[in-house]
Amino acid sequence: MFPNDLQQLADSRSDPHLTLTELPGWGIGAQAGAHLYLFTWKALTVGVGGEVMVARATSTPGSSSSTLRPVGERLVSASPQLSFNFGTGHGWSYLSAGLGRSQWLLHPTSESPGPADAEVLPTFNYGGGARWFIKQHLAFSFDVRVYEVQPGSPFGTNPGSPLARALTIGAGVSVR
Asked: What does the pLDDT look like over 89-122, one tens digit per residue?
């Protein structure tokens, strides 16, 4: 879920500025990660690793709207992570967090990306999930994560983008 209620985010892009109703909101994406498990202490296993996430959304105004523009949004994030894992080799839950970098593109699809879209911003991500192994090396995974993208710089007459949070909910497979 991309934020679609931050006026400063809409104002930080395009000229004329985007409107809140042009911000896409829901999107789709993919996430990949790898972790090494360093040690186990009682029921806790500590791991380190990294993850990459790409999410994309578009808004398409209805044919009755002559003033709203189609807008594309994409968030690409990469970070190292620290994880705390609880469970057994057959399944476990985890909490993880990382501090990395993101690029947030948000512009009308008829326009080229602007300077704010090229800026790489510090990003803190945190969340948790679970893995249930259905075979020795194959598991079903579920993950809920928040990406806190730090404020961006002002460019031209546009203000800098605000601190923004994007929520991801994912399900997929894990291998070990």
From this structure: 788 999 999 999 999 999 999 889 989 999 999 9
The domain limits of the chain are 7-59+69-175
Strand ranges for 28-163 from DSSP E: 28-41, 44-59, 71-88, 91-108, 120-135, 138-149
For residue 124, how far is the Cα from the chain centroid?
Answer: 10
- 1 near 24, Cβ under 8 Å? no
Tokens, residue 80: 């190292």
Q: What is the spatial distance between Cα 9 and Cα 163, in angstroms, rounded to a whole number?
A: 9
At 43, phi and psi to the nearest 5? -95, 5
123-151 CB burial, b ≥16 within 10 A, e <16:
bbbebbbbbebeeeeebebebebebebee
Q: Which fold has domain 7-59+69-175?
A: Porin (2.40.160)
pTM: 0.88
